[in-house]
Write a structure and sequence with these properties.
This protein has 248 residues and is an all-alpha fold. It is built from eleven helices and two strands, in the order H-H-E-E-H-H-H-H-H-H-H-H-H. The chain has one domain. Helix 2 runs antiparallel to helix 3. One of its GO terms (cellular component) is ATP-binding cassette (ABC) transporter complex.
Length: 248
C-alpha cells in the first residue's frame, strides 16, 4: 500500500463537495430535524434517550452512504481502464484494496464524528459505553456496504449505477426501520432488508433489543441479518468482478 497514493486519493474524494454534502452534511441535517428538535427528544430509550436513538440512526445512514460510494467508485475505476494503468505500477491488488478500505472507513468516520458531536451538543444522552460501542459498530458495520457498492459498480459499470446504489440506500433505510419506526407487517418485512441488521446492532448498546413498537429483538436477529447480507454482497461482488475481468 502506498501512503502517497492513499493521501492523493483521499484528497480527490474529499474534493467532491457534492458527494461530501450528501455523505456528511445531509445526515447531520436530518439528525437536527428529527432528533434534536422534536419534543420527545429527552424521553428515555434504554440506556439513552430519543435524541441518541436518532443520532445513531443518522450516523449509520451517513456511514453507509460513504462506504457504498467509495466501493462503487473503486469498481468503476477498475472497469474503465484504471486497473490497467495501475498494473504498470508496483501497486498490487491487495494494496489497492487496502487503500480503498482505508479511504472508505475514513470517509465513513466523517458523518459519524460530525453527528455524534452535534448529538453531544444538542441533548443526546446515554451511557459512556453506549456512545463508544454504537460509534464503533456504525464504523465497522458500514464496511458491509462497501461490498454493495463494489457489487453495483461491477455489475452495471456506469456512473448511473453508482447513483442507483447510493439512491437505493435511501430506500433500504426506509424499509429497514432507520428513518421511521415501523410496526406490524412492515416491521416483519424490514427484518429481511439490508440495513435492518446493521442499524439494529448499532442501536443495540442503547436499546438492548427493545423496539419502538414495544416488541423485542434478540441479539441474534440483527446479527444474522447483517451476516447474511455480508455474505450476499461478498458473493455478488466477487462474481461480478470476475465476470468483468473476463469481458476485458
Amino acid at each position: 500500500m502506498n501512503p502517497t497514493y492513499t493521501l492523493l486519493e483521499m484528497r480527490r474524494v474529499t474534493r467532491n463537495y457534492t458527494g461530501m454534502f450528501f455523505t456528511a452534511v445531509l445526515p447531520a441535517f436530518l439528525y437536527l430535524v428529527f432528533g434534536s428538535t422534536v419534543q420527545a427528544k429527552d424521553e428515555t430509550v434504554g440506556n439513552g434517550n430519543v435524541a441518541m436513538y436518532v443520532m445513531i440512526s443518522m450516523a449509520a445512514y451517513g456511514a453507509v452512504l460513504a462506504t457504498t460510494s467509495v466501493g462503487g467508485n473503486a469498481a468503476l475505476e477498475r472497469q474503465q481502464g484504471w486497473g490497467r494503468q495501475l498494473g504498470l505500477t508496483p501497486l498490487r491488488d491487495s494494496g489497492y484494496i487496502g487503500m480503498k478500505a482505508i479511504i472508505g472507513m475514513t470517509v465513513a468516520a466523517i458523518p459519524i464524528v460530525l453527528i455524534y458531536l452535534l448529538g453531544g451538543l444538542t441533548g443526546a444522552r446515554g451511557d459512556a459505553g453506549a456512545w463508544v460501542l454504537s460509534a464503533l459498530i456504525c464504523l465497522a458495520g458500514s464496511s458491509i456496504f462497501s461490498l454493495y457498492g463494489l457489487l453495483m459498480g461491477s455489475a452495471f459499470r456506469s456512473e448511473a449505477a453508482l447513483g442507483a446504489a447510493t439512491g437505493s440506500v435511501i430506500i433500504f433505510a426506509f424499509l429497514g426501520n432507520v428513518f421511521v419506526p415501523l410496526s406490524g407487517v412492515m416491521l416483519t418485512i424490514a427484518k429481511f432488508t439490508p440495513l435492518y441488521g446493521y442499524v439494529g446492532l448499532a442501536r443495540y448498546p442503547v436499546t438492548e433489543g427493545n423496539l419502538a413498537d414495544g416488541s423485542f429483538d434478540p441479539l441474534w436477529v440483527p446479527l444474522t441479518n447483517a451476516l447474511v447480507w455480508l455474505a450476499v454482497f461478498a458473493v455478488g461482488a466477487v462474481y461480478f468482478t470476475r465476470k468483468g475481468r473476463e469481458r476485458q
